[in-house]
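Researcher: Dear colleague, please comment on this protein.
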Amino acid sequence: MSVLTHRGIDEIRTTLREYLDPQPPALSLPPAAYTSAELWELECERIFRRSWFLVAHTDQLAEKGDYVSVSIAGEPIVVTRDGEGALHALSPVCRHRLMPLVEPGAGQLKSFTCPYHRWNYSLDGQLRGAPYMGGNAEFVQADCRLPRFAVSEWNGFVWVNTDADADPIEPHLELAAHRFAAYRLDRMTLVDTWSLEWQVNWKVVMENGHENYHVLGLHQQTLEPFIPGGGDVTVEHYSPWVLHARIPFTLPMPSQTLRLDDMQQANGMVLVGFPVSAFIALSDQIVWLTFVPLTIDRVRVLGGVLTTPELAAAGDESLERTQQAVTAMINEEDRAGLEAVQRAVGSRFAERGHLSPKEAPGIIAFYRNLAQALLGDTPWPGPVGESR
């Protein structure tokens, strides 16, 4: 490794440590944080292989054989529902010659059959058949199964962790559950989904997701009239894994089907699961998003829209199409803006930027978790409490 590379990663570490101070600087990360190969490897080791990712809604895994397949920083994962109703998170890489059993996406199957040599696995990962392997005396079919990952289902959201022995995510999510009890999350119905690829480093996306200030520029026509970028975002940091934020509406948004209090009618209620998952409650709707890191400069954007069973049953197709079009437009606005930022981080004039009070609470909360996860030698500094 070159002296320059050593200096680059050392500079990033030094910068990250600043965010653990009681009074962290209101400055963005150094540009090298979005391009450093050494930092990416550290993130893979200390974050992506140890963290929980929201990958689906339970409606996508409602029937036997339903599956959702994703790749997290190069690690393929498939989540499926078996005939007993149990969820399984498995490595979809065949134990024979490493052929993926399924590609990223979603679908339904009765079992996993490798397209290479037709090895067949049950929905819980056990090998059921391997053609012409009887002549190999050292091969024991009963001992062959797909590796497992940790999986959890919480209020309709399905989370996975590539560390099979990871501590449960539910206790952390429950810390913020009281903020969302009125939304009846476990009864919500999925009405739209998407899977997109953006050419951007995951931290650029998550900085954007931790503030509403960018609405002033990227979403002038779509969001600014309803959720103004100049509003004061309130942040509650419950644990290293869970952050809650409230984003004020221009005017209260009462619900047609839910009994929401004044705070919930006046704000978008956000839950962020470190490192890359979130959902926001907007009156009768929930929008969920996960920005799955693929490479140092690519993310897979998974997401969907939920609504109450009453509104889903009403079946207003014209309204649904309009909502889908608006959501797609907002996603495209973010994609175009963030990919432009990624193209600029390599400029020789790029440097750390001063954060506005409108964005600092959320972004610094993200940086604190990032620092704790990557440095690994300093305890989490604790909740920052409510701040503006």
Observations:
- The radius of gyration is 22 Å.
- Residues 1-6, 379-388 have pLDDT under 50 and may be disordered.
- Residues 74 and 122 are 24 Å apart (CA to CA).
